[in-house]
Amino acid sequence: MKFGSFLLAFLSSHIVTAFSPASQRSISTTGAIETRMFSSSSGEASSEKKASGHAPRHDTGAPPADISPEEMKTQTAFAEHQQNVPKLGFAVDVRTLVEYNHGFAVISTNSKAKEGYPNGSVVGFAPDEDGNPIFVFSGMSSHTQDLLVDPKCSLTVASKQFKGAADGRVNLMGQVKLVPHEEKEALKAVYLKKHPDAFWVEFGDFNWFRMDIERINFVGGFARAGSVTPEEYQKCKPDAISAFGVHIASHMNDDHMESTIAMIESQVPGLNAKEAVITSVDSLGMYVKVTRSPVDSEEKQQFKMRLPFPRPANDRKEVKDIIVEMTRAAASSASE
Q1: Helices 316-335, 242-255: inter-axial angle, 10-degree rounding
Q2: Mapping DSSP to helix (H, G, I), strand (E, B) and coil, where does residue 59 land?
Q3: Which of 122, 204, 270, 318 could form a disulfide with 313 if both were Cys (CB 3.0 to 4.6 A apart)?
Q4: Distant-in-sequence contacts of 195-204, Cβ < 8 A, 24+ apart
Q5: Helix 69-84 and helix 3-10, axial crossing angle in degrees, nearest 10
Q6: Is the entire prediction scored with pTM above 0.85?
Q7: Facing residues of 78 across strands?
């Protein structure tokens, strides 16, 4: 039995986090991404398409050969593990990403100079207390001229640690309009907190704008994508641990990667990771970019794995204590 058909029979048709070479992933454009661990026959693809509501799919690569029982067991264990691990949820993930981004993103406006074409610009922004991006734009900038004619636009925000497809990004669609003069001082304080050296906020030809968000599309990495309503987004608060999680991830990656690999192996035995790079840390766990070679193949697989904490963390000390606890438990498990 090919693993694709086994997985379809075993797992629900909602969200499946899985691993495979990039050329063998199949992506659904519904509210979540479903990823088959390996490509299946046309009949299997047909049944999966039916299960996902006839959503369009990208399916590249030929069906693979049968995999060994040992590898099937490992991949099944991984899929089961990832289905049940605690996650922040899309709305909190998006709010967190926007809040802790470095303060720069790509705005796409409808060009005034070239009608019918998009105009992309890298701009500074800061989210207000409801997560709505605020901007201070020069009247001479092309995107400013575009927005004064047509306020409809989108803002593409990448996570602060973005390096590639495994990392999070979000696209906010809405309308960016001038804000009333009486709100200027309050907005200035918010913007300068994110951009303390932005001396140009005092220039006479710079004006304040705010986006009213109408649609949100989120990609959290491999096999994790969907949409969030503006209401869901605005009701959430950013995850507090994520504010400093990147520093914890950097320390672990530089000095303790072997501990991360041991923690992975203790939760999914047989995965045999060769590299494990923590991409983010939040109050419920960590996302890790894992590189492995299966026992029956020479081809490297790279995928994102959720490594959960045994309990929620509320501050930096608790995160440290939990990781030490998980490291010791993994070492004890390996010695048994």
Answers
A1: 40
A2: strand
A3: 318
A4: 195/103, 195/124, 195/126, 198/124, 198/136, 200/136, 200/138, 201/136, 203/138
A5: 30
A6: no
A7: none
Do the Cβ atoms of 243 and 109 come closer than 8 Å? no
Distance CA 191, CA 198 (A): 8
Query: Where does 179-300 show beta strands of DSSP type E?
Result: 206-221, 224-228, 273-282, 285-292
| Strand pairing class (152-158; 104-110) | antiparallel
Q: Where are the beta strands (DSSP E) in 64-168?
A: 104-110, 118-124, 126-127, 133-138, 152-158
Three-state SS at 301: strand
Task: List, for residues 124-163, the tens digit of each pLDDT value.
Answer: 999 999 999 999 999 999 999 999 999 999 999 999 888 8
80-113, pLDDT tens digit by residue? 999 989 999 899 999 999 999 999 999 999 999 9
Rounded to whole angstroms, the Cα distance separating 52 from 299 reads 29
- The whole-angstrom distance between residue 57's C-alpha and the CA centroid of its chain comes to 20
Q: Which residues contact 107 (CB under 8 A, 6 or more apart)?
A: 120, 121, 122, 123, 135, 143, 153, 154, 155, 156, 176
Q: Measured on CA atoms in the order 95, 101, 106, 110, is the torsion positive or negative?
A: positive
Interval 57-77 mean pLDDT: 72
The one-letter amino acid code at 262 reads A
pLDDT, tens only, 191-218: 999 999 999 999 989 999 999 999 999 9
